[in-house]
Amino acid sequence: MGSKIIIFLLLAVGLGFFSCSSPKERSQILRINLSSEPPTLDPRKATDVTSNNVLIMLYEGLTRIGADHTPKPALAEKITLSENRTTYTFSLRKSLWSNGDPVTALDFERSWKQILTPSFPAPFAYKLFLIKNGAAVKKGTVPLTELGIRALDVSTLEVTLEHPAPYFLEMLSYPLFFPLHASIDEKNPETSPSNGPFILKQWDHDNEIRVEKNPLYWEASKVTLAGLKLLIVEDATTELYMYENGELDWAGAPLSNLPTEFLPTLKAEGRVITHPSNGTYYYKINTQIPHLHNSKIRKALAYAINRQEIVDHITQADQEIALALVPNMWDWKSQVLFKDDNKKKAQALFKEGIQELGLLSFPKTFLSFNANREHQKIAQAIQQMWKETFDIEIELETFDWRVYLDKLAKENYQIARMGWLADVNDPISFLDPFKYQDGETNGTGWENPHYISLLNASEVEIDLLTRKKLLEQAEELLIDEMPIIPLYFINFTYMKKPYVHNVFLSPLGIIDFKEAFLK
Questions:
Q1: Per-residue DSSP letters for 189-209?
Q2: Which of 69, 170, 258, 375 is buried deepest, with most CB atoms within 10 A?
Q3: What's the pTM value of the predicted model, to 2 decimals?
Q4: Domain limits at 207?
Q5: CB 406 within 8 A of CB 309
């Protein structure tokens, strides 16, 4: 970023001199920034916010989350639930793929069965373990024919669950559960037909993505936008400059971040919108690293962090510090499971941990994060806090997004930053990823039999209060062993032009442009 641009931004922000160029109303093209290249546009393999939000433009599932944050029927025109609340029957409405082929129940059955095929690489496959025999099929101990998914005919899908799940219809709006056309190209899934409000027109890798309105979408009458231009600009200050210069209609969350150094002024001028999320920013720890295997060491590292200082002086988006993993969600009040900035306790635990490990000194430790100035600032602050508290050497590592995700997947890290947004409004969305050591979303090498039993018990518990207590106990156990270090609960901060209307932003990090328009 050149000094001239920075000076311009300082003047623009300080003096309230902003570009207010009017939209090209006739074209109805909305321009946003993705910040990073989507690692994949295959719904079966997507795990990140960027990929999932593009997929929601391109595909439609059985349900779609509405403006009231509850699931609404989408391709499922009628939904019937059995008396024991474990068997769902979905009657599909007539709809088409973008190439004119009909969308059928067989498309759903085939896609979900592919995800649960033992050899198929689907990191979030565990979300389908809710389906009868899902986990056993994925492990290869039960054949696919025993899976609780059946296309009764071309327009009727029957799904049987392992146990009642009040969040199942909400989960079906998640991209993992989208249908795929039979002709999908495994190497280039973006070239396959889609069935959502928009279709992929162009993908200029690392530069921009263009989507256009899908004329064959079943509810095309509600889609006003002619399309979206999705730029891929990593630097937050450049994005803000482009927004002020009239090159973007939206800047910031959930697909990117506003530069923290400008947030105080932008907020003071009333130009920033803050939207709470069901998300947590935390560090995950590779517990298989010898000097990080001891839980006292991990807890010491967690207790030594001054989270309030980080949210007050670095992130500056009115975040609440996280002293547990699960944020406030619907009827769930976040727990307080340890004290922030407890350096005295941290030093005592660290000393005990060093003695138990038989170490004469603490090895140099690597703290990794993906390329982003906010992540870097947070890491630098924590590096200094750990240096002052324990006099240890922490080396910072930064990687491009795709490389970073690959390193985490291979557990090729020591301590790494992570942000997790719930896929459903339920604490299980935060706790389930750490259930099994070999789970693809765990990545910490941590597993605890009692933790597993608590989550298993919560799955079959009908009484909501009892279920909540079981989940609270599981979270307490997780935090007591600290394979992850919660830092703060995520807030979405963004700016949008006054002519942008009807964009739906969910606390789950989903931004839906289906009914958006420029006026």
A1: GGGS---SSEEEEEEETTTEE
A2: 258
A3: 0.88
A4: 3-13+21-39+194-270+493-518
A5: no
